[in-house]
Amino acid sequence: MADNKVNMPSGFGGLTRFSDEYSGGLHLKPTHVIGFIILVILFRVLLGVVYA
């Protein structure tokens, strides 16, 4: 009889785990990002009005 065994490496079997508690980098709320975009747009409009 033929030996039909599959040899898998020990451990996670090729699965990768990522930590959910990564605390590095800059964390911004979506409302802050939208507010900043609105401020940039208003600043650009005001520059167009003043220097037109």
SSE inventory with pairings:
Elements: H1 30-50
Describe the fold and architecture:
40% of the residues lie in helices and 0% in strands. It has 52 residues and is an all-alpha fold. The chain has a domain at 28-52. The longest helix has 21 residues, at 30-50. The protein starts with 29 loop residues before the first helix and ends with a helix. The mean pLDDT is 80.
Structure summary:
By secondary structure, the protein is an all-alpha fold.
> Percent range for helical residues?
40-55%
List the helices and strands in order. Answer: H
- Average pLDDT works out at 80
Please give the largest β-sheet: none
Distance between the termini: 88 Å
- Based on CA atoms alone, the radius of gyration comes out at 27 Å
- What is the molecular shape? rod-shaped
What structural class do you assign from the helix and strand content? mainly alpha
List segments where confidence is low: pLDDT < 50 over at least 5 consecutive residues.
Answer: none
Write down how many β-strands occur, each being a DSSP E stretch of 2 or more residues: 0
* Tally of helical runs: 1
Strand content: under 5%
